[in-house]
Amino acid sequence: MSMLERRLRTAWGYEDIRLLARRRLPKVVFDFIEGGAGGEETMRANRDAFEQVKLRPRQGNAPPATDLTACVLGDTVRMPVLVSCCGAALFIHPDGELGVARASARAGTVYVVPHLGGTRTRSITMAAAKSRSPP
């Protein structure tokens, strides 16, 4: 197990992972991922809204059976969450968009191609189709 894998296993949340990325990535790449458009008002509003959510773990209670399947663009997905990485994913990981598309397909949901993708859309579509698990 690499040092990075050990550190990721001990990360407790977003801020821990953010600090690992800041130390590991070139500044220009980290700033691209970390930043938002314009004055970053939407980014701040999203962070403020997320901080209003309070999670109450209930380890002793069995969760009820849930069915999150939904129809998205005429396709059945296992959860109503679409996945999209930031553009220029190849700067962050050698698999770039292909890795995110494969992971999304294995999770049973849709990958949305970013506007600054470094991979041909056809290649992304083929990678997702090969990795897709049934709903």
List the helices and strands and how they pair.
Blueprint lengths: L2 H7 L4 H11 L2 H8 L6 H11 L18 E3 L2 E3 L18 H12 L13 H11 L4
Antiparallel strand pairs: 1-2
Helix pairs in contact: 5-6
Mean pLDDT: 85
Strand order of the largest sheet: 1-2
Gyration radius (Cα, Å) is 17 Å
Structural shape: globular
What share of residues are in beta strands? under 5%
Structural class: mainly alpha
Helix content: 40-55%
Distance between the termini: 33 Å
Low-confidence stretches: none
Quick take:
This protein has 135 residues and is mainly alpha-helical. It contains six helices and two strands; from the N terminus they run H-H-H-H-E-E-H-H.
Describe the 3D structure.
By secondary structure, the chain is mainly alpha-helical. It is 44% helix and 4% strand. The protein contains 6 helices and 2 strands, in the order ααααββαα. A two-stranded antiparallel ribbon has the order 1-2. Strand 1 (70-72) and strand 2 form a beta hairpin. Helix 5 packs parallel to helix 6 (121-131). It is globular.
